[in-house]
Amino acid sequence: MRSAQETVSTPFITLAGVRSGFRLALPILPGSVVFALGFGAAAAEKGLTFLDTFLYQTIVFAGASQFVSLELWSDPMPLATALTMAAVVFVVNSRMMLMGAALRPWLGSVPAHQIYPVLAIMTDPSWLIALRYNREGGNDWGIFLGASIAMYVTWAVTWIPGYLAASAVPDPRLFGLDLIMPVFFTTLLVPIYRERSDLFPWVVAGIVAVSVQMLFEGYWFVLAGGLAGAIAGAFAPRRAPAEAAIAPVKDGEA
Amino acid sequence: MMDGLLTDGALVAIGLMLATTLVARMAGFFILGRVTITPRVRRGLEALPGAVIISTIVPIALREGLPAILALAVTAALMKLLKRDVVAVVAGLATVALMRQAGF
Predict the structure, then answer these.
(1) DSSP for A61-129?
(2) I need a surface site. Which of A12, A70, A198, A217 has the fewest CB within 10 A?
(3) Contacting residues of A for B17, CB less than 8 Å apart
(4) What is the pTM of this model?
(5) Is the CB of residue B91 less than 8 Å from the CB of residue A184?
């Protein structure tokens, strides 16, 4: 069983893993490019300098939160505004705390100086790619690094044409590219599904996310839905065999 | 507009945003290293990827309406049948684009 294997084998990293992580991220990159172009264009219109925008992209490196905080940008920048922007960024990115938590059982034994730099450039797609790979039995965390690098490099570079030619940036809606994130996520959801008991946390997550989105402003719905789904998964009744499979494995075996 | 290299205060704002982003990215991993991961916690964490995906896509699908819902259904079906993510993504996007062209 998967759980048993996770418990006993130490994660490792190879160059081949990094490469295949990069490759697994390719389907989402067109979407990242379009959003980066859009951010470049929006930043130019807001009056950000080239260097402002470059630092925004490469240091904050968190798509949705950048768009939301950019709305608050002002020149000059009072400290109160800067603090508000940072708070907004935290709210939009709060779901990442759940994402990081979910990596712990797999990657907890990787040395801190290796894993935290990768966490620093974690994105939703790279996280999902890595966890899906691990769920299928993989243990090479180069997958996580490779997918993260693919996202980072794309985001760090492809905003530039958008910034330089702000008015010429095409509407992402034209090719449905504004929806590439949910579409890509769907391809990752399908292989995660194993048995009917998986559906219970998903239904709970969906109901909570939709309710929170309707009731509250802002981006709380992903955090709320994710948390509700995790709690549902933790307390849902499970069939016994999965539990029994962990028990016989002792330290040093396998 | 572009009269300087950097906007006044830009570094402060970007630095503060970096700080909160790093906390969001690292805190969950850090905290889970300091509490015992019981089987129950582990099951909760295992349910997280699916729960986060659902929490992201369902509100978007409902907001965007029929083209998005159909696109996600097409993507899921192709992924199930062919197990090729690129094909499923392209077909999903094509579904959105065509539906919108058709006036939905």
Answers:
(1) --HHHHHHHHTT--SS--HHHHHHHHHHHHHHHTHHHHHHHHHHHHHTTS-HHHHHHHHHT--HHHHHH
(2) A217
(3) 59-60, 65, 69, 85-86, 89
(4) 0.83
(5) no
The residue type at A165? A
Q: Is the peptide bond before A111 cis (omega within 30 degrees of 0)?
A: no
Non-local (6+) Cβ contacts of A244 within 8 A are: none
Tokens of A33: 């490019």
Q: Let me know if residue B27 belongs to a domain.
A: yes
Residues 6+ positions from A134 with CB-CB distance below 8 Å? A6, A106
ipTM for the predicted complex comes to 0.88
**Mean predicted confidence (pLDDT) in B8-34:** 95
Into how many domains does chain B fold? Answer: 1
- Hey, what are A7's tokens? 């418990």
Walking along chain A (254 residues) 10 residues at a time, the average pLDDT comes out as 54 97 94 90 92 96 90 90 92 92 95 97 95 94 98 96 84 83 91 89 97 88 94 82 43 39
Task: Give the Cα separation of B38 and B41 in Å (integer).
Answer: 5
Cβ neighbours of residue A208 under 8 Å, at least 6 residues apart?
A: A221, A224, A225, A228, A229, B55
Q: Which residue of B has its CA nearest to A93?
A: B24
Q: Do A210 and B17 touch (CB under 8 A)?
A: no
* Distance, C-alpha A163 to centroid of its chain: 25
The two tokens of residue A83 are 């603090």
Helices A29-46 & A180-192, crossing angle to 10 degrees? Answer: 150
Q: Find the closest chain B residue to A52 by CA distance.
A: B6
What range does the domain containing B16 cover? Answer: 10-101
